[in-house]
TrEMBL record:
Any Pfam family: EGF_Teneurin
Protein name: Delta-like protein 4
Gene source species: Aplysia californica
Domain Ig-like: 31-118
PROSITE patterns attached to this UniProt entry: EGF_1 (PS00022), EGF_2 (PS01186), EGF_3 (PS50026), IG_LIKE (PS50835)
Gene field: LOC101851126
InterPro entries tied to this protein: EGF, Ig-like_dom, Ig-like_dom_sf, Ig-like_fold, Ig_sub, Ig_sub2
Keywords on record: Disulfide bond, EGF-like domain, Immunoglobulin domain
Domain EGF-like residues, every copy: 201-233
Amino acid sequence: CCVDAHFHTACHFKQGLITGVLCCRLPVKRPNIVVKPPGRLQVYRDFIFLLTCQASGMPPPRLLWYKDGRRLASGNSRISVLSSGDLLVTLARRSDTGLYTCEAINEEGIDTASSYVSVAEYTSGCADDSTDGLHMHSDIQACAGEWKGHVKSAKSLCARGWRVCNPRDQRSLKEITSFEMFDLSGCYAYNAASRKNKCKRWEKCVPRCEHKGVCISHNRCRCASGYKGARCQLPVCSPGCGSKGQCIRPNKCRCSAGYTGRTCRRKTKPCKSTCLNGGRCRRGKCKCPGSFWGKACQYPLQHVLLTRLNRTE
């Protein structure tokens, strides 16, 4: 029989030799709801809403949903529990308002999470009583249409009691998520002017353009030759420094240890000994300054003269 304990090698099934495997129960663990529904949720009538509930535990817990303390029946065509454990409600009604509770249960215990859902009548902020986006927001909506002149003239597209959004509506504008913006099928404007409906020209670059770059508009730099980047902070090396170098100024690369050349792509041949006294390693040999000599530039030039004088004497 094969035992995978001593030699640390896997056991392969062999007909007539191995009958099966020994299975051990995983350690039990109480349920824990790791993805909970929101504490409160407001939706409009005839809309769809989803309450998330995902739990961990061993054995894997069962997920049950309750509304106002009563278990939701499985025969309702508008309300269904997905395979993930989430609760999906379609064509929301005023009667769907209430406290929804997710219960995760296994033989070790129970964990619960609740969400209060309120279903309200939908009120459009558009003059034609239709909304092209941002349905889930009560204070801001996207209204389709045309206008002439400044965007403030588009107030005719807004319903009574609504206006074209402006900087005073920053709180509502900040509630729009990036997902909701990408979900809009079109481009929707608002009045961004901050001083009596007039846009102020603002040609300032913060931080400033570097390396003699010129600020041409708000946070836009025109870079001098040899530099690039939002602030002209990056030098340009042509054709580049490769993966073993760094461009430190226009067409000048600083190579990593062991590499040389204009583009840092040629490996250097190391010298057998460290070059001393200002000597530099060139193709495996030390190139010494004028006042030193030797394989490692270890001898001063006076040493040669003294040696010759000693031989003469």
